[in-house]
Amino acid sequence: MRVTFPHMGTLWIVVKTLFEAIGQDVVVPPPITQKTIALGVRHSPEMACFPLKVNMGNFIEGLERGADTILMAGGSGPCRFGYYAQVQREILKDLGYSFNMIAVDPPDGDWRTFWARLRPLLGGKQPGWKEGLETALLVWEKLKALDDVHHLVLETRPFEKRSGAVTRCHDLFLREMAELRDRKAVRRLTAETRAEMSSLREAGKNPLRVAMLGEIYMCLEPAVNMHLEKLLGEMGVYVERTIYLSHWLRDHILADPRRILARRSFKKCASRYLDHFVGGHGWESVGKTVRYAREGFDGVVHLLPFTCGPEVIAQGILLRVSRDYDIPVLSLSMDEHSSETGLLTRLETFVDMLSQRRTGRRAELCT
Amino acid sequence: MPASVGIPRALLYYQFFAFWQGFFGALGAEAVVSGQTGRNILEAGLTAAVEETCLPVKVFLGHLQDLAGRGVDCLLVPRYVRVEKKRYTCPKLLGLPDMTRSLLPGLPPLLVPGINGPIDEPPVLAELERACGIFPADRKRLKEAYRFGLGEYRRFLRGRLQGELFFTEKTAHGNRAPSFKVALLGHDYNIFDEYLSFNLPRYLQRQGVEIVTPAVCGRKQVSSGCGRLEKDIFWTFNRDIAGAAFYFLERGEVEGFILVSSFACGPDSIVNEIMEREFKRAGVPYLTLILDEHTGEAGLRTRLEAFLDMLAWRRGKGARYFPAYGNPVDCR
Question: Is there a single domain that holds both residue B196 and residue B266?
Fold first, then answer.
């Protein structure tokens, strides 16, 4: 059995580590390129949302490299993502691939079904408790290191001495991280990267602060949001990312109390505008915009795949939040037709406007 | 006490209008339904909505403005989360009241009952008590009104199961016997809105086509149709449509399927793909029509005519594939 799976940011490092630790063959799909997207778009329903199409590209490239099993997440609605795997399986079947699709819904209480779905991935092997625990700890350590370093990258980028240095350092860190197999090495690499980041940094200026929020896939996968964090960071903007990979694990598997508190706080922030979940991350988008507006952020970038139901609801509501709290919100709806030049122009304009607002405010204060 | 309640003729109006009209009528309020969708209503909705919202939600916003113009005292905008256990309606309906408040701040007060289960179960009554607090009715009166509404709703459902539809034209087939039986699949708010669908059902009837819709399928038929899916569909209305489609397909009683969807409809984009693949595998013709504010009547008619011609040829020549030139091929 050779397993493949879809890309989403640094997820591949975690999944690769997990499967290698339990001795399972894993085919990491090649990084998302224009070819991946073109492949996915060609075989996906025209009206489906963008992540489904990119997943399809990953699956096809993974299967072409010899995978025979696809691991995919699911859900119980109302977001379309919950039914992705069903459509994707039918399309791939009609394309003539022979494979086994393992679609796992988040457990949310029903652990028995959850494990029953995952069991075939062990390939008949029954790892002992010690081995299992060791694997879980390694995966968790990596996940934490990836998220921590990512946060550091965002913090350092607006202060970097040479443009692009932070990104290069981050890329190197990711490449090395993917190969590590024990926790000590993970910790060592993280410490080294921290030290290197601080050497890339120079003191000074008070950067614009922008929160990036919206649909999780568009936020986490730089290949589909056209490296938005990097583009903004290299314009000297501090980008606060509001969704990290480890959040899903903390929300659905570990029931982390800090996450429960965080969720409660965004619900409270959103309550004046939206008092009900709408699927996906729509509710979060509204609550977090209110929160960052209160925290004095300069602006918000709201990312959504074209026609995403939950985020379109949020977009309608954000128009009002933006007026009420006087915070600029840039909603970017993206799909296979988006162009990087178009995005760059809009971002430059947005950032110009934000910095003018800042100086304008200061001028108002002086008079 | 509000003397009149505005009910927009859009979205789930086509499922629950009988209930709401009965309910408010029994409470002693006048239930005002907005006018038929038309250019003005559509344009009012388009101006208010976020561009990539689906057509029926845009139209819904237009109907609310139409009602506000008629001077009603409050507007009914329920939050339909679920209308049956375990399944959802759709994300946009979940956030509809909130989006409405943000996009159309000047409207009369909204009545927002949250429907979170089958409409004939007790939690809905409790929710109505909460949401309809502005009516000075005691519990007993409210309960009676609720029962009356349910009675009306059940009568509507019975009629629908027997094929009574919004559009039925008694003399539809004229002197001709119906030539084909075609299943018309899509959300009721798309198909039965005469303006949005360019009167599609009536057009088909006039062409001598006998239409069946998912409305004639009961729960059992839908469940049996959905049996072929590996994972149950979690959107109520799309499940009804897909279940009915597969049921018709298994019985082999229709000669073709017409799928009507609206641009940017999330659930349709996923479930229709699965249905289309099943139709293709079974070798049954289907036509997908996607509606939005730019849809033109002529384009729609041309495609329908071509589809009906193809059905006729299939029957007359016994072939399955009709290339653009050359002879029909039976590739069974």
Answer: yes
